[in-house]
Design goal:
about 200 residues; single chain; mainly alpha; about 65% helix
């Protein structure tokens, strides 16, 4: 499947927000947390929502966040110089899934970030990777706004001079619209700065 059009993305995002609202209403009607309703849905309908191997991705996530993940273990579980075994990582993985209601999203985001940071990429690969990550973050922002009332604003841009000129997006949730213009102005300034630096580098060669 090719890249979705902006219209398709807008339609999907609108539908997802509608689903979030319906999910909130359902959770209230049965007096359960939203996360519990989602877990029941996944278990009873056996949908493979995230096409990643969670354990393999967690192994990478653990390597990047070892101190935080080991802190999940009960005090005294491991000594200061104890080797981190597969069993210990497995215990951390179990606690990670118990303590992080959105652990699937965390792992998928980490997986995307790792893929994005792997080796040299073409301009189109960087653009696709950038769009994929921004869409993931903005969907999470909109979901948090609909589910919990958490409003937020995002300005995200590339920082590699020769590859990322014009690579940027700004996004605000519905009630954060007053800062939208400021976000776009900041993004414009960043892109202008990158373009200026690139022009100076090319003129000096």
């Amino acid at each position: 499947m090719g890249r979705l059009s902006q219209d398709a993305n807008d339609t999907l995002n609108h539908g997802f927000l509608t689903l979030e609202e319906q999910l909130q209403d359902l959770a209230k009607s049965v007096k359960m947390p939203v996360e519990q309703v989602i877990n029941i849905w996944h278990k009873t309908h056996a949908r493979n929502v995230h096409g990643i191997n969670e354990w393999n991705v967690y192994a990478s996530f653990f390597t990047s966040n070892a101190a935080e993940e080991l802190a999940r273990l009960p005090p005294g579980t491991i000594g200061p110089d104890q080797q981190i075994t597969q069993r210990i990582r497995s215990q951390c993985f179990h606690l990670f899934r118990e303590q992080q209601a959105n652990y699937k999203e965390i792992l998928e985001t980490h997986d995307n970030l790792m893929k994005y940071s792997e080796g040299p990429q073409t301009l189109s690969q960087r653009q696709r990777g950038f769009d994929r990550i921004v869409d993931k973050i903005t969907n999470l922002m909109d979901s948090a706004a609909a589910k919990y009332g958490f409003e937020s604003a995002l300005v995200m841009c590339g920082s590699v001079i020769h590859e990322d000129a014009g690579l940027g997006r700004a996004h605000t949730t519905s009630k954060a619209q007053p800062v939208r213009n400021s976000c776009h102005e900041f993004l414009y300034c960043v892109n202008q700065s990158l373009s200026t630096v690139l022009a100076r580098m090319l003129s000096s060669n």
